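Service request form, structural biology core

Requester: graduate student, group of Dr. S.
Request type: structure prediction, single chain
Budget code: on file
Notes: please return the result as structure tokens.

Sequence provided:
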Amino acid sequence: MKLRSMLCLCCVFASACAARESETAQNVSAAPAELRAARGGAVFTLSNESEGNRIFAFARASDGSLGEQVAYATGGTGTGDSLGSQAALALTEDHRFLLAVDAGSNELSVFAVDGAKLALRDRVASGGMRPISVTTRKGLVYTVHAAGTDNVAGFALDHRGHLYALPGATQPLSAHTVGPAQIALSPDARSLVVTEKGTSKIDMFRVGAFGRLEPAIVVAAAGQTPFGFEFTTRGDIVVSEAASTSASAYAVDRHGITPITGPISDTQAAPCWVAVSRDDRHAYVANAGSASISTYSVARSGEIALEDARDGELGEGGRPLDMALDISGRYLYVLDRGNLSIASFDVARDGSLDASFNVGELTSFTSGLAAY
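Core staff response, request fulfilled:
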């Protein structure tokens, strides 16, 4: 069994290396994002039910509208309570596979994606207790755990959608019970970042050969209770800070994490989830306590500035959580737990938001959002 796992692991990374070598050629022949978006896509969210976890899938039309809700069982279980995290779901870069956390059964599930249709490909032990957030790039997958010994664990994802635990890819966070909120790989997949709510710290792990992780480089966050974040294509991160009602920007490289700007208040309540526009010019922050979406401008230097504290509003009873942009960046989808639905916003050329519609019949503990 060990030999089989190592052989499979070698095959995974051989395929990954070949894919990287041909990446330039593929990009030349690839259709522009606008053309690919014209064919439609999908939006996914996670039920997180303790009696059986499910993915809720919505087909996305080219005008951003969403079709009928369809459910797919993960085979694992959720927790039946709030995960308190961003990115309980993650799509691979080519949108072929969707990964989901099964926080109740301590597993990860992998689905093959065909439009908005899903087919379960694998389910494996997550390498810890209560996985709450997952990330994937370049054939690597990592998840962070929020119970037991808070830790991160890494896997290789092969072309069939199977996961294999990576040797040397499990590391502890800065301490036990730190309340992690999110995990994410940098665009070059050489750095792995985790936010810690309970300690107001941010961890960065260097990613080495075959996905091995070095011990965490830990820094104090600029604001209090760092929560959700997203990388720009340049490799900077914009981080929400719930307790200080603010956001900050940081540069991330192999040496660690360096503050750029912040904390900058958005004057709202409980800013927790973050999405960065496809052109890197704007960052959107979901304010769970004030039913609003704030917009920050993002400069090429990585500096951020508050543009509009209430650019998007969910209305009465709204409680915005996770967010995701479609492949074109023209539509922002928001998990509205207050109304148990998916809210949609049209994104204008200047980055401003215009509310469009709400769809879905979600559970009280629905978590995570992924879109393409």
